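Agenda item 2: nickel (II) ion complex prediction
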Amino acid sequence: MAVHPLCVEPHPVLRTPARPVDQFSDDLRRLARDLIDTMYANDGIGLAAPQIGRDVQVFVANPTQQRGREVLLVNPVLEAVTGRAGVVEGCLSLPEIWERVKRAARVRLSGWDLDGKPVEVEADGLLAIVLQHEFDHLHGRLFIDRLSWFRRQRVTRRVRARAASRRAAVPPSQASGAKGRDASLAASRVR
Ligand code: NI
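Presented output:
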């Protein structure tokens, strides 16, 4: 088991489009295990590789938080989105920020499993939201990017203030791995 420190905004890896996985190797399996362990250790319901400092296209999602029921996708493609939903979201890379985000209600994604076999995932409810949130992480997007301009300005000020207080509180040698305690997404109504 390996729990990694989380990368927190404004860490540059969170804003870097992740590279496609080109080898279904032991390293990929290790990364998948580490993502799952780190997600559960932080009480999250989703986690993408960039959040632990790896710029590759892998994420894990599991709104049930039951071990063994994770949805893991490698090189995911968003094939279809339908309907509308609005859920209050949080993110392990944005500690203590919670905002309602407009999303699609249902999604279909294709991708690959750890063995390089093609997989397709269809989801609605909270899983659909988590899949969209984690998919965004692989393209350098955070949920705050989807807020209205006004709300985003307000949130960005809070993110900057928190980053400044972390820099003041944490010795520089540990500053890149500040650990968040929030769940990756708050369970909430899907509208
Ligand atoms: Ni997130």
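Discussion summary: The chain has one domain: 12-147.
Owner for follow-up: CH.
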